[in-house]
Design a protein that fits this description.
two-stranded antiparallel ribbon, globular, 72% helix
């Protein structure tokens, strides 16, 4: 049982990169993996074979309560069953993943650290493969195979603008996943050191992210990469090697892209500071600002049901995590979402204050990505991305809890001795 349990994170991550099994029903491989594993963990918890991870359980309660409210709100209105079920799945998958990580079978810090490293390496490897697959798709028609993974035609429409995302249907999905990959890459390098293969995988993820022309990647993933390079000692010490090898490895691919990639001009718009286009419209692709799509949706909901929103299945487009909650559940749901984000921030501060290690830095960077990305996409419920993101969050919360439990007895003993007058003696030289 323990061996199977230790492989849960890898199984979940692999399933999130899997195909649609029944495209007409929207049935994905990850759904057939996540929900049974969550049911198994519930059985383990009921029979008290696992210990509760308090921060993961708190997160589960916050998210579960939000989902319950939105579900009840949605049942009050008539809506398309298909679109409603899709939204239910978007919110239920994070619940299921949190259930899996809200309890754990006997784990040590070392074992949990190994699981985080293995999960991070798997995500980076899969994204590197997807980047290669994307480049191959630019010169060879892979549409027939990719359709098994897309579940829609967004990727085909995006390709007409030179935006490519491999197995991901939406460029925003791919850009967010590559941003997560950047965060995990920084963690790997911080823990095991900078190797040549790491530079190669970074180059592939940057190319893959650029090909999506996703604002989440351009202004989230790359920003976190710059911050991480400054923060990570192993990179700072070998920055010259990083820059040299990266430039050598990247010259040919980037030159090829500049000559053949139709989306280059679309990307360079963000560097045209003399453009007359409104910066807000440019960065949001016209989604914000006066007369934009989001402002029209917001006005519609504000005039009809500002407090409780419209419920699942009434809005097709969600270009923001904040609007996702507001559109479905009004101001009440929006407040719930802000509380969830504040819990992420609170855990980041606690993690950094207690340990300030590689894991706490990764949690802080993921929190930054979730908050920044929420202005452009519903990061926490995004198709394919949510399972990977919540798996990493779950592992880190487990690691935090195990570390805290290991430190607490020592701290409590020291305080107890100090109260009884057995304070440690100072040695003067």
């Amino acid at each position: 049982m323990l061996n199977i349990y230790n492989r849960f994170p890898l199984i979940l991550i692999l399933s999130s990169f899997g195909p649609y099994l029944l495209l007409q029903l929207g049935l994905r491989l990850e759904q057939l993996v996540v929900y049974p594993l969550a049911y198994l963990m519930v059985m383990v918890l009921l029979f008290k074979k696992a210990k509760i991870v308090q921060p993961a359980m708190i997160m589960l309660i916050l998210w579960g309560y939000s989902f319950f409210y939105l579900l009840v709100r949605s049942l009050m209105n008539e809506a398309s069953i298909t679109s409603m079920l899709n939204e239910v799945d978007n919110f239920l998958l994070p619940c299921a993943v949190l259930v899996i990580f809200s309890g754990f079978i006997t784990q040590t810090e070392e074992r949990l650290k190994d699981k985080i490293i293995s999960a991070s390496k798997l995500v980076v490897s899969l994204l590197s493969i997807n980047a290669c697959w994307t480049i191959l798709g630019m010169v060879t028609d892979l549409t027939a195979i990719n359709k098994l993974f897309w579940g829609g035609d967004t990727a085909i429409n995006a390709a007409t603008m030179g935006r490519y995302s491999g197995i991901f249907n939406q460029p925003a999905e791919a850009g967010t996943m590559y941003s997560i990959g950047i965060v995990l890459w920084l963690y790997i390098v911080d823990v095991v050191g900078l190797k040549t293969r790491h530079i190669f995988s970074l180059m592939l993820m940057i190319i893959g992210g650029l090909l999506t022309v996703s604002k989440v990647f351009l202004f989230g993933g790359l920003l976190l990469l710059l911050i991480g390079v400054v923060q990570t000692k192993t990179i700072r010490k070998r920055i010259l090697k990083l820059l040299f090898l990266f430039s050598v490895l990247a010259v040919a691919p980037f030159y090829y892209l500049t000559q053949t990639w139709s989306g280059l001009n679309y990307l360079l718009r963000f560097l045209d500071f003399e453009s007359s286009e409104n910066i807000v419209n440019l960065l949001s692709a016209g989604r914000y600002g006066e007369g934009s799509q989001q402002s029209r949706f917001f006005s519609e909901i504000w005039s009809e049901n500002p407090l409780i929103g419209k419920g699942f299945g009434h809005l097709v487009t969600y270009d923001s995590g904040f609007f996702h909650f507001f559109g479905n559940g009004g101001i009440i749901a929006l407040v719930m979402y802000v509380v969830i984000l504040l819990f992420f921030v609170s855990m980041s501060l606690k993690f950094a204050k207690l340990f300030n290690n590689s894991e706490s830095k990764m949690f802080s960077r993921l929190t930054m990505l979730i908050i920044l990305g929420s202005f452009g996409v519903p990061v926490l419920t995004l198709n394919r991305i949510s399972v990977v993101l919540w798996v990493m969050v779950g592992l880190l919360l487990q690691y935090y809890w195990v570390q805290k439990k290991a430190v607490s007895p020592v701290t409590s003993t020291a305080k107890h001795k100090e109260k009884r007058g057995f304070a440690p003696q100072q040695i003067h030289s």
